[in-house]
Amino acid sequence: MIQPYVYWRLDTPLAYIVGLYSNIVNGGMLDDPTAYADFKKGPQYNWLVGELRSVAAANSQNSPKRTVLLAVHYPPYSGASNFNVRGNPSQGPSPSASNAPYLAVALQQAFADSGQRPDAIFSAHAHLFQRLTYTFADGTVMPCLVAGCGGHSPLEVLSEQCDGETGASQVAPFPAVPPGSFQFPSGDSAQVEYYEDNMSDDSEFGFLKVTIEARILMGQFIGATSKKILDEFKLDLDNRKYQ
């Protein structure tokens, strides 16, 4: 947090992992909007587009292709009741961020400009667990994981508003909460498939285990106390749909 704009790419035998720095303002952003009124001119944004183009070109030669994973501190999508405020840069304590795009808008534009979508997005920030499915207009899906309950106490409550009021616990699946005036692109949507928060007596901390094998991306959320698999998904990386 005292070394801003540390972003990186890690190449492994099975995956390209792209890590972004967004922990600057409420909702997250890639570049300073006071320096780059057009966010597409920002250095981190252009680096991201370049890296996604690079892995797309490499995957055109790879057999089999490598998985493309994106990691970013702030979640671009969430089912949290307070995300209408917490996901909006203009609502934070930094007035200079009022012109910043929603993080989801900047990321989706980078995917379009590079011609490469990640197979999954991993984030944290909120001290709970959520698995969201982003569904594109073409029917393909992209898991978006918010894994922030590895040990920081206490767990957050998904239904808690910014004013401290808490609504009823929701039963998944349910639609993601759009921040501010954000609107999904035509035909796209996102919904929460599973979450773990501090609403029930049996809620617990946990960790996310990710496995890549035979062009299948599998994610398992495992309870730290129970050692049970509390949530699981399998994504076919070739057709980008759940098994």
Describe what this molecule looks like in 3D.
Helix content is 14%, strand content 28%. The protein is α+β, with helices and mostly antiparallel strands and 243 residues long. It has one domain (8-200). The protein has an eight-stranded mixed beta sheet with strand order 1-2-3-4-6-5-8-7, with helices on one face. A four-stranded antiparallel beta sheet has the order 9-10-11-12, with no helix packed on it. The longest helix has 17 residues, at 43-59. The protein is globular, with a radius of gyration of 17 Å.
What is the topological layout?
Layout: E1 8-11, E2 15-19, H1 43-59, E3 67-71, H2 83-86, H3 103-114, E4 120-123, E5 129-135, E6 141-147, E7 174-175, E8 189-196, E9 206-213, E10 216-223, E11 229-236, E12 241-242
Parallel strand pairs: 2-3, 3-4, 4-6
Antiparallel strand pairs: 1-2, 5-6, 5-8, 7-8, 9-10, 10-11, 11-12
Helix pairs in contact: 1-3
